[in-house]
Amino acid sequence: MSVPTPADRHATAEHLLGTAGVAHRDVGSPEATSANLAWWNADADTYNQTHGDFLGDADFVWCPEGLSEADARLLGPEERLAGADILEVGCGSAPCARWLTRQGARVTALDLSSGMLRYARDGNDRTGLHPSLVQASAEHLPFASRSFDIACSAFGAIPFVASVDAVFTELARVLRPGGRWVFSVTHPMRWIFPDDPGPHGLTASQPYFDRTPYVEIDETGKATYVEYHRTLGDYVRALSAAGFRLDDLVEPEWPDGHTRVWGQWSPLRGRLFPGTAVFSSVLEA
């Protein structure tokens, strides 16, 4: 992710957590997990009030560009979803999981944040679609080996974990041979730009190869939010090391007529360079 400014749309969470500044430093898994658990609990109301209409109650939207699974079919054809065991990692309020449930899949939706899962439960009750909801870390999946046919994540968990290798290794464990793992993240090239949807966000300000995490801190220096940057090559190598074969890398174009601004995503920037990377991979048998 490109570097956000301290005073941004997350002012409510920052106030609740006492965020006082920004740092760039190494952060291990325990500190990152603690910080991001508190962050997403604090930000759950604002996030869902701001983005809930775009994400829908039971729609599968991969990214701020609006790419939908109903159109892209990155998880496979419709007939493959019916009866499949599917894990969503970093489900948030779980609209993707409910869309998959509506397709006839048996879905488990996992998130670290109890605040986000509260919205997921409300969405389940509102729609009558009930994927299983589990609170856990993506680095330590609480499932038996070979439990799932497909795993997916739409901007969930991956940027916020200290070890993407641990996550991919865990996914390789819980997927069956030949299973699919598809995930979307902020396009790594965005890291070099300020987190600004306007003209200021068009000037590079940080090295692409600087992988030092972005950290928001309180007055004592304690992390209140942590986000990690990986290059495209980092993701490819991590997938390969865990036993996955990359079969597609999708960089959604900004659609004509799409005017919604979401954080750093905007028509201005979207016309010039990609904002999202979607990695599609298969677990080697």
Strand arrangement within the widest β-sheet reads 4-3-2-5-6-10-9
**Percent range for β-strand residues:** 15-25%
Poorly predicted residue ranges: 1-7
**Largest beta-sheet characterization:** 7 strands, mixed
How many E-type strands? 10
By oligomeric state, this entry counts as single chain
CATH topology: Rossmann fold
Q: What's the helical proportion of residues? A: 25-40%
Look at the structure and give the CATH class. Alpha Beta
General shape: globular
CATH architecture: 3-Layer(aba) Sandwich
Mean pLDDT: 95
Sketch the topology as an H/E string, one letter per element.
HEHHHEHEHEEHEEEHEHE
What features would you describe in this structure?
The chain is α/β, with parallel strands linked by helices and 285 residues long. The chain has a single domain, classed as Vaccinia Virus protein VP39 (Rossmann fold). Helix content is 32%, strand content 22%. The protein contains nine helices and ten strands. Strands 4-3-2-5-6-10-9 form a seven-stranded mixed sheet, sandwiched between helices. The protein has a three-stranded antiparallel sheet with strand order 1-7-8. Helix 2 packs parallel to helix 6. The two termini are 33 Å apart. The N terminus is likely disordered.
Keywords summarizing the entry:
285 residues; alpha/beta; Rossmann fold; seven-stranded mixed beta sheet; three-stranded antiparallel beta sheet; methyltransferase; transferase
